[in-house]
Amino acid sequence: MGKSASEIAELVASGRRSAVEFAEEALDAIERSNGILNAFLSVNRDLTLEAAGRIDAMVAAGEKVGRLAGVPVALKDNMCQIGFDTTCASKILNGWSPPYSATVVQKMIAEGAVTVGKTNLDEFAMGSSTENSAFGPTRNPIDLERVPGGSSGGSAAAVAASIVPLALGSDTGGSIRQPASLTGVVGVKPTYGVVSRYGLVAFASSLDQIGPFSRTVGDSALALEVISGWDNMDSTSYDGAKFSLVSQQGVPMDGVRIGIVKEFMDGCDEEVLAAVRAAAEQLSKAGAKVDEVSIPETKLGLSAYYIIAPAEASSNLARFDGVRFGLRVEGSDIAETNVKTRTAGFGDEVKRRIMLGTYALSSGYYDAYYGKAQQVKTMIKRGFERAYRDFDALISPVSPTTAFRFGERASNPLAMYLSDVCTIPSNLAGHPAMSVPFSADSSGLPIGIQVLAPALGEELMFRIAFSIERSSGGGGFGSLDPALEEVMTGGR
Questions:
Q1: 101 given a catalytic annotation
Q2: Domain holding 11: CATH number?
Q3: Which position among 22, 286, 458, 462 has the lowest Cβ density within 10 Å, counted as fewest Cβ atoms?
Q4: Of 175, 214, 426, 472, which residue is the catalytic one?
C-alpha cells in the first residue's frame, strides 16, 4: 500500500476507491508478511471489513466522511479498542478484551479511519528493540536480522513495510522516535497532555504520550491534528491546544533559530553525526540560522529516567494481581496466587523495572532516589528553557546508532538503555519531539533526525520537519529486505 493517508482519504471520499478495498489490501499484507515480520499480535478481519463497509455506505449516501475516510491504521497493543484484545505483549494480559476504546481510537474512527490490527511491542512498552515481547520479536523490514527499535517496534514496522500508512504508538522515553529512526519512517511525540492517555495502559503516567507513525511528515501532521485536544477522561489533558500542522508545509524557514544539541552528539556513530550535520546544512540553506547549543543537564536524563519510570511502573503494574485482569495462577491463598501470577505473567525486563521502582519508592530511599530524580527532571526542563531563549527549536540524532542486530544488546541492559539517551530528555521535560527520516548509512540502514521544540511548539516543529523532508528528497530510506519484498509482492 504505497499511497499516503491523505491520498487514500481523498480517493475514498470521492468514491473512486472503496474503504473495503483498502482494508482488504492491508489485511492481505498482514497475512502475507506476519510470519516473517511478527508486527501484528491480533487482527479482527470481520470487524475491520464491517467498519470499512460503513464508510463506503456513508459515501454512497452522500454523507460527509472524515479526514481519514477509509484509511487503514494500526494500533500499538497497549491501546484499548472494543473488539480487539489488548495484551501489552504480556502473558499476564493474554486474551484480555477491553470493554471500552481509547480516546485516540474514538477520534480516529470518528474521522473515518479503519483499525486493521494491534501491533507488537516490548512488554508493557519496556524496551528499545521489541525483543521483550512475550509473543516473539518484531523484525526490521529493512533488514530482517536487525531490530526495528522499541518499544513501538510493531507499529514502526507496519508503516515501514507499507502495510498501513498510519499507526499509533506510545512514547515514554523514545518509544516512537527511536523505532521511527531505525525503520526510516516519521514518528512524533507530542507535548505531554496534548493527546489524551485515556485507554492507554499506563507505563509511567507522568511521561507516557501517544503519537503517530507515517511515511510522510504530512500524514503525521494530519494524524496529530485528529488525535490531539482536551479530553475530560484524562486529568492531565491540556485544554487549549489547537494546532494547524498540515498547513506548515512550505512555510519559509527564514530567520528560524535552530540549535544542534552538543550533548546529544557525544558517543554517536560517525555516520549518524554526519547526517545531523548535513541536515543542519540543508536547514541553513533554507534560511534558518543554525548553531551549536549546550544543555549539560541532559547528561543526567538517563539516570533520572531509570528511577522515575520504573517507580511509576511499579505502582501502575500493581493492578495486575491475578484477580481483576487476565492471567490467574492459583495458589493456596491470595498472596501466593498474586506471587505465582506475577512470576508467570511478567517477563524479565518488566520484573527488573518493577523491582528497581519498588526499591526507589521504599521507605528510607524515596528522597534519595525518586525525590532526587524529580529534582533532576526540573533541572533538565530549565536547561531546555534556557536553550529556547536563544533558539526557536533544536535538532539532534534520534539514536546513537542505526538498527542493531538481534541479541546484540539483549544481555546488557545498560547498553540497551543507552539507545534512548537522545530521546529521554524530551519526555522528562514534557516537550514535543519527532524523528524525520533523512538518509541511510553505508549499509543502507535508515538514519532519522530528531526535531525538538518547546512545549506546545508543534507547529514550528512540523515546519522544520517538512523542510528536512523536502531537502532529503521526501521519502523513507532503506529498501525492504529482499525476503520480505518477495513475500509482499508475491514474487512479482
A1: no
A2: 3.90.1300.10
A3: 286
A4: 175
